[in-house]
Design goal:
Blueprint: E1 4-8, H1 13-24, E2 28-33, E3 44-47, H2 53-59, E4 67-70, H3 79-97, E5 105-109, H4 113-116, H5 145-160, E6 163-169, E7 172-173, H6 183-197, E8 201-202, H7 207-211, E9 213-214, E10 217-218, H8 219-231, E11 238-242, E12 248-249, H9 250-261, E13 265-266, H10 275-278, H11 283-293, H12 300-303, H13 306-313, H14 324-328, H15 337-350
Parallel strand pairs: 1-2, 1-4, 2-3, 4-5, 5-6, 6-11, 7-10, 8-13
Antiparallel strand pairs: 9-12
Protein backbone atom coordinates (compact mmCIF):
# COMPACT_ATOMS: atom_id res chain seq x y z
CA UNK A 1 0.00 0.00 0.00
CA UNK A 2 1.39 3.40 -0.94
CA UNK A 3 1.90 5.63 2.06
CA UNK A 4 -0.42 8.62 2.25
CA UNK A 5 0.57 11.44 4.57
CA UNK A 6 -1.69 14.12 6.02
CA UNK A 7 0.60 16.97 7.12
CA UNK A 8 -1.26 19.28 9.49
CA UNK A 9 0.28 22.73 9.47
CA UNK A 10 1.81 22.29 6.03
CA UNK A 11 2.53 26.00 5.59
CA UNK A 12 4.77 26.25 8.68
CA UNK A 13 8.50 25.65 9.11
CA UNK A 14 8.14 22.05 10.23
CA UNK A 15 5.19 21.10 8.04
CA UNK A 16 6.53 22.56 4.80
CA UNK A 17 9.94 20.91 5.18
CA UNK A 18 8.27 17.62 6.11
CA UNK A 19 5.94 17.74 3.10
CA UNK A 20 8.87 18.45 0.80
CA UNK A 21 10.81 15.48 2.18
CA UNK A 22 7.84 13.11 1.99
CA UNK A 23 7.25 14.00 -1.66
CA UNK A 24 10.93 13.39 -2.40
CA UNK A 25 10.54 9.90 -0.91
CA UNK A 26 7.50 9.10 -3.06
CA UNK A 27 4.63 9.57 -0.61
CA UNK A 28 1.20 10.93 -1.54
CA UNK A 29 1.05 14.10 0.56
CA UNK A 30 -1.96 16.15 1.66
CA UNK A 31 -1.13 19.51 3.23
CA UNK A 32 -3.75 20.80 5.65
CA UNK A 33 -3.85 24.43 6.75
CA UNK A 34 -6.40 27.21 7.03
CA UNK A 35 -4.84 28.71 3.90
CA UNK A 36 -2.64 26.01 2.38
CA UNK A 37 -0.01 27.12 -0.08
CA UNK A 38 0.31 25.75 -3.58
CA UNK A 39 4.02 26.47 -4.12
CA UNK A 40 5.24 22.93 -3.45
CA UNK A 41 4.81 20.81 -6.55
CA UNK A 42 2.95 17.58 -5.85
CA UNK A 43 1.44 18.69 -2.53
CA UNK A 44 -2.35 18.28 -2.43
CA UNK A 45 -3.75 21.29 -0.53
CA UNK A 46 -6.50 20.78 2.05
CA UNK A 47 -8.13 23.92 3.48
CA UNK A 48 -9.73 23.33 6.88
CA UNK A 49 -10.28 24.89 10.30
CA UNK A 50 -9.15 22.50 13.03
CA UNK A 51 -11.57 24.07 15.50
CA UNK A 52 -14.61 23.16 13.41
CA UNK A 53 -15.65 19.55 12.89
CA UNK A 54 -17.88 20.45 9.95
CA UNK A 55 -14.90 22.07 8.19
CA UNK A 56 -12.69 19.05 8.85
CA UNK A 57 -15.30 16.50 7.81
CA UNK A 58 -15.90 18.28 4.52
CA UNK A 59 -12.21 18.86 3.76
CA UNK A 60 -11.19 15.29 4.61
CA UNK A 61 -14.13 13.48 3.01
CA UNK A 62 -11.93 12.02 0.25
CA UNK A 63 -8.65 11.91 2.21
CA UNK A 64 -7.69 8.51 3.64
CA UNK A 65 -4.24 8.92 5.20
CA UNK A 66 -2.04 6.13 6.44
CA UNK A 67 0.09 8.56 8.44
CA UNK A 68 -0.86 11.81 10.17
CA UNK A 69 1.79 14.39 11.09
CA UNK A 70 0.59 17.15 13.45
CA UNK A 71 2.86 20.21 13.32
CA UNK A 72 0.30 22.94 14.01
CA UNK A 73 -0.65 24.90 17.13
CA UNK A 74 -2.36 28.18 17.98
CA UNK A 75 -1.12 30.81 20.45
CA UNK A 76 -3.61 32.21 22.97
CA UNK A 77 -3.54 34.75 25.78
CA UNK A 78 -3.35 32.28 28.68
CA UNK A 79 -2.07 28.75 29.16
CA UNK A 80 -5.55 27.61 30.12
CA UNK A 81 -6.79 28.82 26.75
CA UNK A 82 -3.75 27.29 25.02
CA UNK A 83 -4.72 23.96 26.57
CA UNK A 84 -8.37 24.24 25.59
CA UNK A 85 -7.76 25.33 22.00
CA UNK A 86 -4.75 23.19 21.10
CA UNK A 87 -6.10 19.99 22.63
CA UNK A 88 -9.38 20.59 20.80
CA UNK A 89 -7.53 20.95 17.50
CA UNK A 90 -5.82 17.58 17.96
CA UNK A 91 -8.99 15.90 19.20
CA UNK A 92 -11.09 17.21 16.31
CA UNK A 93 -8.54 16.09 13.75
CA UNK A 94 -8.20 12.57 15.12
CA UNK A 95 -11.98 12.28 15.51
CA UNK A 96 -12.38 13.29 11.86
CA UNK A 97 -10.03 10.60 10.54
CA UNK A 98 -11.14 7.92 13.01
CA UNK A 99 -14.07 6.50 10.94
CA UNK A 100 -11.78 5.96 7.94
CA UNK A 101 -9.84 3.17 9.73
CA UNK A 102 -6.81 3.88 7.52
CA UNK A 103 -4.47 5.63 9.95
CA UNK A 104 -1.45 3.53 10.94
CA UNK A 105 0.65 6.13 12.73
CA UNK A 106 0.26 9.63 14.21
CA UNK A 107 3.30 11.86 14.84
CA UNK A 108 2.98 14.97 17.02
CA UNK A 109 5.53 17.79 17.17
CA UNK A 110 5.83 19.64 20.48
CA UNK A 111 9.14 21.00 21.80
CA UNK A 112 11.40 21.78 24.73
CA UNK A 113 8.65 23.64 26.58
CA UNK A 114 7.80 20.09 27.61
CA UNK A 115 10.81 20.41 29.97
CA UNK A 116 11.09 24.18 30.41
CA UNK A 117 7.44 25.01 31.06
CA UNK A 118 4.76 26.86 29.06
CA UNK A 119 4.90 30.54 28.11
CA UNK A 120 3.49 31.74 31.45
CA UNK A 121 6.16 29.88 33.47
CA UNK A 122 8.89 29.51 30.87
CA UNK A 123 12.32 28.68 32.34
CA UNK A 124 11.40 30.07 35.76
CA UNK A 125 12.88 29.11 39.11
CA UNK A 126 11.23 25.97 40.38
CA UNK A 127 10.69 24.56 36.88
CA UNK A 128 14.27 24.48 35.58
CA UNK A 129 15.30 20.98 34.45
CA UNK A 130 18.67 19.29 34.67
CA UNK A 131 20.33 19.61 31.26
CA UNK A 132 20.84 18.04 28.82
CA UNK A 133 17.11 17.32 28.86
CA UNK A 134 16.21 13.66 28.42
CA UNK A 135 12.96 12.00 27.42
CA UNK A 136 12.63 10.21 30.75
CA UNK A 137 12.33 13.50 32.64
CA UNK A 138 8.87 13.61 34.26
CA UNK A 139 6.27 16.18 33.32
CA UNK A 140 6.47 19.41 35.28
CA UNK A 141 3.78 19.84 37.98
CA UNK A 142 2.15 22.70 36.06
CA UNK A 143 -0.37 22.87 33.24
CA UNK A 144 1.12 22.73 29.75
CA UNK A 145 -0.68 22.56 26.41
CA UNK A 146 1.98 20.16 25.09
CA UNK A 147 0.87 17.63 27.71
CA UNK A 148 -2.76 18.12 26.70
CA UNK A 149 -1.91 17.54 23.03
CA UNK A 150 0.01 14.37 23.90
CA UNK A 151 -2.91 13.06 25.96
CA UNK A 152 -5.27 13.50 23.01
CA UNK A 153 -2.94 11.41 20.82
CA UNK A 154 -2.65 8.71 23.48
CA UNK A 155 -6.43 8.49 23.91
CA UNK A 156 -7.10 8.28 20.17
CA UNK A 157 -4.35 5.68 19.70
CA UNK A 158 -5.94 3.49 22.37
CA UNK A 159 -9.33 3.90 20.70
CA UNK A 160 -8.26 3.40 17.08
CA UNK A 161 -5.21 1.16 17.36
CA UNK A 162 -2.62 3.28 15.55
CA UNK A 163 0.98 3.74 16.72
CA UNK A 164 2.33 7.17 17.67
CA UNK A 165 5.50 9.19 18.14
CA UNK A 166 6.12 12.50 19.93
CA UNK A 167 8.89 14.77 18.61
CA UNK A 168 10.48 17.44 20.83
CA UNK A 169 12.79 19.71 18.80
CA UNK A 170 14.78 22.62 20.15
CA UNK A 171 14.51 25.94 18.23
CA UNK A 172 13.57 24.92 14.68
CA UNK A 173 15.64 26.56 11.94
CA UNK A 174 14.01 26.70 8.52
CA UNK A 175 12.15 28.86 6.04
CA UNK A 176 8.53 29.89 6.55
CA UNK A 177 6.50 33.08 6.29
CA UNK A 178 3.91 33.96 8.94
CA UNK A 179 5.33 31.53 11.49
CA UNK A 180 5.11 32.39 15.21
CA UNK A 181 8.36 30.67 16.26
CA UNK A 182 11.02 31.47 13.70
CA UNK A 183 14.43 32.26 15.17
CA UNK A 184 16.48 31.84 12.00
CA UNK A 185 14.43 34.20 9.86
CA UNK A 186 14.04 36.62 12.77
CA UNK A 187 17.81 36.93 13.13
CA UNK A 188 18.20 37.28 9.35
CA UNK A 189 15.70 40.15 9.31
CA UNK A 190 17.36 41.81 12.31
CA UNK A 191 20.82 41.53 10.73
CA UNK A 192 19.44 42.98 7.48
CA UNK A 193 17.99 45.94 9.39
CA UNK A 194 21.32 46.45 11.16
CA UNK A 195 23.15 46.47 7.85
CA UNK A 196 20.67 48.92 6.33
CA UNK A 197 20.85 51.33 9.27
CA UNK A 198 24.43 50.86 10.47
CA UNK A 199 23.29 49.64 13.88
CA UNK A 200 25.38 47.05 15.71
CA UNK A 201 24.07 43.48 15.69
CA UNK A 202 23.33 43.36 19.42
CA UNK A 203 22.87 40.02 21.19
CA UNK A 204 19.49 40.35 22.93
CA UNK A 205 19.68 37.53 25.46
CA UNK A 206 21.10 36.42 28.79
CA UNK A 207 24.58 35.68 30.10
CA UNK A 208 23.64 32.00 30.47
CA UNK A 209 22.71 31.75 26.81
CA UNK A 210 25.67 33.82 25.60
CA UNK A 211 28.27 31.73 27.44
CA UNK A 212 26.47 28.39 27.87
CA UNK A 213 26.12 25.47 25.51
CA UNK A 214 23.08 25.21 23.26
CA UNK A 215 21.76 23.32 20.26
CA UNK A 216 19.00 23.78 17.66
CA UNK A 217 17.01 21.63 15.25
CA UNK A 218 17.25 22.03 11.49
CA UNK A 219 13.76 21.62 9.98
CA UNK A 220 15.24 19.14 7.50
CA UNK A 221 16.55 16.97 10.35
CA UNK A 222 13.17 17.10 12.06
CA UNK A 223 11.46 16.00 8.84
CA UNK A 224 13.76 13.00 8.49
CA UNK A 225 13.25 12.14 12.14
CA UNK A 226 9.46 12.17 11.85
CA UNK A 227 9.53 9.91 8.80
CA UNK A 228 12.01 7.58 10.50
CA UNK A 229 9.91 7.25 13.66
CA UNK A 230 6.69 6.73 11.72
CA UNK A 231 8.15 3.88 9.64
CA UNK A 232 10.49 2.19 12.14
CA UNK A 233 8.96 -0.46 14.36
CA UNK A 234 11.46 0.05 17.17
CA UNK A 235 10.51 3.74 17.38
CA UNK A 236 6.77 3.22 17.75
CA UNK A 237 4.88 4.58 20.74
CA UNK A 238 7.75 6.66 22.06
CA UNK A 239 8.73 10.29 22.61
CA UNK A 240 11.99 11.67 21.23
CA UNK A 241 14.16 14.73 21.50
CA UNK A 242 15.34 15.98 18.10
CA UNK A 243 18.38 18.21 17.52
CA UNK A 244 21.16 18.64 14.98
CA UNK A 245 23.66 16.58 16.93
CA UNK A 246 26.23 19.30 17.63
CA UNK A 247 26.45 21.98 20.32
CA UNK A 248 27.63 25.60 20.19
CA UNK A 249 27.87 28.78 22.22
CA UNK A 250 26.07 31.92 21.09
CA UNK A 251 29.27 33.83 21.91
CA UNK A 252 30.75 32.00 18.88
CA UNK A 253 27.73 31.76 16.58
CA UNK A 254 26.68 35.41 16.95
CA UNK A 255 29.92 36.56 15.36
CA UNK A 256 29.54 33.96 12.58
CA UNK A 257 26.08 35.33 11.72
CA UNK A 258 27.32 38.92 11.85
CA UNK A 259 30.18 38.12 9.49
CA UNK A 260 27.78 36.45 7.02
CA UNK A 261 25.74 39.66 6.82
CA UNK A 262 28.72 42.01 7.04
CA UNK A 263 27.61 43.79 10.21
CA UNK A 264 29.33 44.63 13.50
CA UNK A 265 28.51 42.24 16.33
CA UNK A 266 27.92 43.28 19.93
CA UNK A 267 27.86 40.50 22.50
CA UNK A 268 26.28 40.23 25.92
CA UNK A 269 27.22 43.37 27.85
CA UNK A 270 25.68 42.58 31.24
CA UNK A 271 22.13 43.59 30.27
CA UNK A 272 19.38 41.62 28.54
CA UNK A 273 18.26 43.75 25.58
CA UNK A 274 15.07 42.18 24.13
CA UNK A 275 14.92 42.03 20.36
CA UNK A 276 11.17 42.68 20.41
CA UNK A 277 11.84 46.18 21.75
CA UNK A 278 14.81 46.72 19.43
CA UNK A 279 12.74 46.25 16.25
CA UNK A 280 9.36 47.40 17.60
CA UNK A 281 9.36 50.54 15.46
CA UNK A 282 10.97 49.09 12.32
CA UNK A 283 7.78 48.13 10.48
CA UNK A 284 7.89 51.20 8.26
CA UNK A 285 11.61 50.78 7.67
CA UNK A 286 11.11 47.17 6.56
CA UNK A 287 8.33 48.24 4.19
CA UNK A 288 10.73 50.76 2.66
CA UNK A 289 13.44 48.10 2.40
CA UNK A 290 10.99 45.74 0.71
CA UNK A 291 10.27 48.39 -1.91
CA UNK A 292 13.94 49.31 -2.34
CA UNK A 293 15.14 45.72 -2.74
CA UNK A 294 11.98 44.30 -4.34
CA UNK A 295 11.34 41.86 -1.51
CA UNK A 296 8.33 39.55 -1.54
CA UNK A 297 7.18 40.29 2.02
CA UNK A 298 6.83 43.87 3.24
CA UNK A 299 5.27 43.13 6.63
CA UNK A 300 7.95 42.79 9.29
CA UNK A 301 5.80 40.73 11.64
CA UNK A 302 5.18 38.14 8.92
CA UNK A 303 8.88 37.32 8.96
CA UNK A 304 10.17 38.16 12.44
CA UNK A 305 8.89 36.54 15.65
CA UNK A 306 11.07 38.51 18.04
CA UNK A 307 8.99 37.63 21.11
CA UNK A 308 9.84 33.93 20.76
CA UNK A 309 13.49 34.54 19.93
CA UNK A 310 13.66 36.60 23.13
CA UNK A 311 12.21 33.66 25.07
CA UNK A 312 14.89 31.31 23.76
CA UNK A 313 17.86 33.67 24.02
CA UNK A 314 16.79 35.09 27.38
CA UNK A 315 16.72 31.80 29.30
CA UNK A 316 18.64 31.80 32.62
CA UNK A 317 20.26 28.39 31.98
CA UNK A 318 22.14 26.74 29.16
CA UNK A 319 19.86 24.31 27.33
CA UNK A 320 20.73 21.38 25.14
CA UNK A 321 19.07 18.05 24.35
CA UNK A 322 20.15 14.45 24.72
CA UNK A 323 19.79 12.41 21.52
CA UNK A 324 20.96 9.02 22.85
CA UNK A 325 17.52 7.44 22.60
CA UNK A 326 17.22 8.07 18.87
CA UNK A 327 20.85 7.12 18.23
CA UNK A 328 20.46 3.77 19.97
CA UNK A 329 17.44 2.99 17.78
CA UNK A 330 19.26 3.82 14.55
CA UNK A 331 18.62 7.51 13.75
CA UNK A 332 22.07 8.88 12.95
CA UNK A 333 21.31 12.02 10.89
CA UNK A 334 23.64 14.93 11.77
CA UNK A 335 23.58 18.56 10.69
CA UNK A 336 26.19 21.28 11.26
CA UNK A 337 24.35 24.14 12.97
CA UNK A 338 26.33 26.93 11.34
CA UNK A 339 25.35 25.47 7.98
CA UNK A 340 21.72 25.33 9.11
CA UNK A 341 21.73 29.10 9.55
CA UNK A 342 23.81 29.84 6.46
CA UNK A 343 21.67 27.56 4.26
CA UNK A 344 18.58 29.35 5.52
CA UNK A 345 20.04 32.82 4.95
CA UNK A 346 21.04 31.86 1.41
CA UNK A 347 17.55 30.57 0.66
CA UNK A 348 15.89 33.67 2.12
CA UNK A 349 18.06 35.86 -0.07
CA UNK A 350 17.50 33.75 -3.20
CA UNK A 351 13.72 33.87 -2.64
CA UNK A 352 13.80 37.65 -2.12
CA UNK A 353 12.68 37.58 1.50
CA UNK A 354 15.76 39.47 2.72
CA UNK A 355 18.02 41.85 0.76
Amino acid sequence: MQKKALVVGASGITGSNLAERLLTEGWIVYGLARSPGTELEGLIPVAADLLRMDSLNTALSDVNPTHVFITSWMRNETEAENIRVNSLMVRNLLDAVSPKKTVQHVALVTGLKHYLGPFEAYAKEGTLPITPVREEHPRLPIENFYYAQEDEVYAAAERDGFTWSIHRPHSVIGKAVGNMMNMGTTLAVYASICKETGRPFQFPGSDAQWNGLSDVTDARVLAKHMIWASTTEAAQNQAFNVANGDVFRWSWLWQQIADWFGVDANGFDGTVRPLEAAIAHDGTLWHEMATKYQLKESQLDRLASAWHTDLDLGRPIEVMTDMAKSRKLGFTVYQDTRDSFFDLFTRLREEKLIP
